[in-house]
Amino acid sequence: MHTLTIDFICSLDGYGAAVGWPGWWGMESPEYLEWLEQEPTKDDPLLMGATTYRVMSELTAGGEPGTDVLNDIKKYVFSASLKAPLKWANSTLVDTDAVEYVRRLKEESDRPLRTIGSIALCRSLLGAGIVDRFRVVIFPVITGASGRDRIFDGYPDVSLELVETRTFDHRTQLLEYVPTVLDGPPGR
Is residue 84 assigned to a domain? Predict the structure, then answer.
């Protein structure tokens, strides 16, 4: 069975995006972009919801730096609102239960799986206990006034065991954890 990694980028205060800010908050440093291009899991199939699909396919079509590599990657798009066939290359529309589909995909896939964005999808997969790794890249900004898409609201309680860390260009942090979903706060 292959692993599933939840993969997020966020501001220090936990937002996935901010109104008026460019992609990567304008901080897509050379070292970070190089890591994205060389990262061993960069070709692993991606899981995403409809909103992320719409945003990322538009960014890729518009030539956003670092997104062109997504064109050749297998993508599974979980949506009841999108219609097949999807226009973005290598995209498969899935309109059945995401948790059950991903459970089966983890067993049948010839490669590890990872998410991109897709807050609600990730919340469901984590809550179901089928996530093996939780990786977050934290950009050194606080977007309290303009931030949108709070990532961790509505998540279950989760303990995180740190297994990898890296700093890009002395400012952006990568943190990778093994998650364990908890029944509630420890010691209750």
Answer: yes
Does a structural domain hold residue 8? no
Is residue 3 situated within a structural domain? no
The pair phi, psi for residue 116, each rounded to 5°, is: -140, 120
* Selection from 60, 95, 63, 100 nearest residue 76 by Cα: 95
48-64 mean pLDDT: 87
Residues 156 and 127 sit within 8 Å (Cβ to Cβ): yes
Structural domain boundaries, residue 156: 15-181
The reported pTM is 0.89
Which residue matches tokens 């050749």? 72
Q: Judging by beta carbons within 10 Å of its beta carbon (0-12, 13-18, 19+), is residue 158 exposed, middle or buried?
A: middle
DSSP structure string for 33-95: HHHHHH-TTTTS-EEEEHHHHHHHHHHHHTT-TT-GGGGGS-EEEE-SS--SSPSSTTEEEE-
Residue 116 domain flag: yes
Task: Please give the tally of structural domains in the chain.
Answer: 1
| pLDDT tens track for 133-188 | 999 999 999 999 999 889 999 999 999 999 999 999 999 999 999 999 998 888 77
Pairing of strands 172-181, 75-78: unpaired
* CATH number of the domain within which 87 lies: 3.40.430.10
- Residue 30: CB atoms within 10 Å: 9
